[in-house]
Records
---
Amino acid sequence: MEQHHPSIRQEAVALLDRGMANRAVAERLNVPRGTVSWWRHEARREQGGQGEARRSRLCPVCDERPLDRASYAYLLGLYLGDGYISHYAKHRSPSLLVTMDDAWPGLQDAAEAAFRAVFPDNAICRQRRKGCQNIKVYFKHLTCLFPQTGPGRKHERKIELNGWQQKIVDEHPWEFLRGLIQLFTNTLDTVGVEWRRANAKNISVAKRASVALMDAHIGPKY
């Protein structure tokens, strides 16, 4: 996260306390919305928001906290395709990070919205990088939600969904496909999209009816 002068944060918190929305504060002060969201979270914590802090520790798997299943299906696809979970000793919790190209700002917003739906009580931040943005969250139970995490690169190891994950994907296959770039041919089969392997690394969807299905449910990049 970019470093900002303390006076900027103080002004942001004051505006938030007056009821201004995160987006409006970010635009007014020319800082990322994720940074404003983090400042809001930290201000509430510093003011004694223990109830919110407790909720942010609850896990949909371990504690049966309600889970936005459609958003989770989309985020699961993003994680398997363009995301990873990091464990750094200096941080108390692991982090989930998804990298989104600046060429598609609409998809960046869609990804951030999914993060916020799945982690409603956690701070979501954006990290600006050359040509892209990293969307990130820290959460102690990430490995419960994404048990596919492990050593090495995802595409070099076998990936299987747990039973509860497969149920969510079966309920929301199109959301899963929207987020997923690789490992998605089985789900294509379930929604009737015909595909073929173009080569060792690429999948082709070329038949008119299948392309129309993809356009109708996934839509263009934007």
---
Amino acid sequence: MAADGLRHEFKVVVVTGVPGVGKTTVLSELAKIAESRGVKIKVSNFGTYMLETALKEGIVDDRDKIRTLPLRKQLELQRLAAQAIVRDAARELGSDGVLIVDTHALVKTSAGYWPGLPRHVLDELKPDMIAVIEASPEEIAARQARDRSRYRADMGGVEGVRRLLEEARTASIASAVHYASTVAFIENREGKASEAAMQLLQLIEKL
């Protein structure tokens, strides 16, 4: 950990975006570009870490069921996931490495919206940057409809996505205040994921 305790030795970039925005695709492109430029990164999916913990406890059998769990259980899974992500990154990254955390700033649950980056998660991650991947509500709704591997029927169509985009942007800015993290908004236009990835990498290199 950095001497001042406010940062880890490695840089931490939290990448958020509403479901269907193409975050995973952008981060896949980012990993390729970073490798070609000699930038050492580790991409960790927050939901995957939560799912692995939940599966071990036998409380879900599907990623999308996590957001239907009681909120106190979700909080516990969040904390454990954040700790595991940092622990794994500390083993794999040096002071010149970059941890990329793929997550959501806001999650739509059966009990209302739930912050994906509350204080107890931020205290573990200590992000240098929060990057928000965005696209038009129409593009996102269309991508959600095409992705049959995930259940997103409760997202509310184009208008539901539009509201979630606005609220997620606000949530990302609010989370950034706790650790004086920079905030970047990156548009992922249809078929332009590599351009979005390059823009993100250029911002990371300036940290």
---
Amino acid sequence: MNIVLLSGGSGKRLWPLSNDIRSKQFIKIFRTENGDYESMVQRVYRQIKKVDSDAVVTIATSKSQVSSIHNQLGENVGISIEPCRRDTFPAIALATAYLTDVCGISEEESVIVCPIDSYVESNYFEALKELQNLAEKGDANLVLMGIEPTYSSEKYGYIIPESKDNVSKVSTFKEKPDVATAKSYISQGALWNGGVFAYKLKYVLNKAHALIDFTDYQDLFAKYETLSKISFDYAVVEKEDNIQVMRFAGGWKDLGTWNTLTEAMQEDIVGDATLNDKCENVHVINELDVPILCMGLKDVVVSASPEGILVSDKEQSSYIKPYVDKIDQQIMFAEKSWGSFRVLDVEDESMTIKITLNPGYKMNYHSHERRDEVWTFISGKGRSVVDGMEQLVTAGDVVTMQAGCRHTILADTELKIVEVQLGKEISVHDKNKYELEL
């Protein structure tokens, strides 16, 4: 399979576990067979490789998510980076040009596009293989997957096929309706539009060239910020006459809210929490190092992270976004390509951060103009480099850096460090990067 996974969104509907860097697809809440936890990204990637070990997977995403993707999936996954957000048509056009111009895949080959955050089982990916085969060998320019509705939903657009065959021409599309209208659509055989489709690469390349003036991937990337925001549905799907839909009746969930996310959780508690025997339909996800006790609650989700604490009725949790929009807070936790960091304390002229550096990785060699830093190593072994001078570090060692000096850390084993930043203007933008020669 050639498959493009669309990874977007700020994840505000799953606050406080998600933020502008750590979107919902990177939250580790699904227990694996070995007892660890994996994220939506890891789960989908694992499922694809289980169905097709040779699958070529490309993730279309923003720059802010690249570090999290590498942290969770490794360095070998393909990534089509959007310089900025321009909706799904520019993103898919850029990913298509990336596959042909950078990866060298023939324009005659077909590709599948789907969201990265759907909760599905292996039969979904078997269906994707069939979808790609229809695009490869069929006559249609575009083949959609239509999800058999399980209820009258207001959250999805609808595809109305011409027949009830497994594969049918599309009659029309309908926007997200109210419940009564959705029920009417379903009585006509309508299917949910889950944003899953397949096409030959040359088809979307031709559409892109017709709507955008560019020569190749590099040119499109350079012009990306000037492109108009438009969805793939509006730009392509709803204007295409030669289009088919393939029915899918397997399990499929869009985990976009706390309500739907908790429905997919295999257990009631992730982290340190206790529910008394009067609790009913309560889920707790706790990333803090303090216990949570719930008593007598019903239909409630509780989530705690360094970003904040949510206690909500499950149904009401779907309406969280406008309230989160009013919260102005710096990022308190993020995964990077080299590991992760968590903010422990913020004062007017200091910030304390716990850093975990993965074995074999290093930070950028960098300096700060307006702050001093102190590193206290609490576990592991590695090497610090300060103004070109390298020294071995281990638990108990302390390294100090004055403003302006260049510094980095290289991890020989997993390293855990407490970093104290001291200064009157502490900012993520106060950073100069350099090449490191050892």
